[in-house]
Amino acid sequence: MLSFLAITEAVKGVVEERYPGNTVYMERVPVDFARPSFLVELGPVEMLDASCGCLEVKATVVVTAFVEADDYYNSHVPDLMTRMGAVQELFAVDGLQVEDRFLHVTANKGNCQFDYAETSITFQYQDDRPVKPGGGRRENEAKQISGGQPDGAKRSFFRRRGGEDEQRNGADIRLLADGAK
């Protein structure tokens, strides 16, 4: 599976390319951090069923922009809005190249506050389901199909039909069209 760290690092690279003189932090900012700067962190991640061997992944990356602040940590809001808009424009594209994958941008939302501005970018892509050590879902499915028999042994196949399970031996298998008896 594609790592979420690879996704956040790719986003960080895009922001650093656009703002080469600014520090871009990952996951947290230190006390008395540099301003102007950015923070890139992973937001909500949703994994949905796409098929028996595939997941539909929606990963959100949040880019927070900081500009100079006064003694009360209030920033110049128009500067924050400008930065937020510029970051949104960076990701107002079809997608983002991450390693050998191209992730589709499905959402790009901005939110401006008094001392920071956030841009949340949601990437959507499909990925293989992970296989658990010692036999994952795919291996168990293969055992069910083969009846748990080693290669070359006579195999049994089960087909659900009319609410009942029918067992057919490997030699008797025929492809039946839906509704055929």
Helix content: 10-25%
Class from secondary-structure proportions? alpha+beta
Q: Strand tally, please?
A: 8
The main sheet orders its strands as: 1-2-3-6-5-4
Question: Biggest sheet, in brief?
Answer: 6 strands, mixed
| C-alpha geometry | elongated
Rounded Rg:
25 Å
Tell me the β content: 35-45%
Q: Which residues sit in consecutive blocks of at least 5 with pLDDT less than 50?
A: 142-181
Describe the structure in your own words.
The model is unreliable at 142-181 (pLDDT under 50). The strands form two sheets. The protein has a six-stranded mixed sheet. The protein has a two-stranded antiparallel ribbon with strand order 7-8. The protein is an alpha+beta fold. It has helices at 4-18, 77-90, 137-146; strands at 23-26, 37-51, 54-66, 95-98, 101-112, 117-128, 156-161, 164-169. A hairpin with a 4-residue loop joins strand 5 and strand 6 (117-128). The longest helix is centred in the first third of the chain and has 15 residues, at 4-18. It is built from three helices and eight strands; from the N terminus they run H-E-E-E-H-E-E-E-H-E-E.
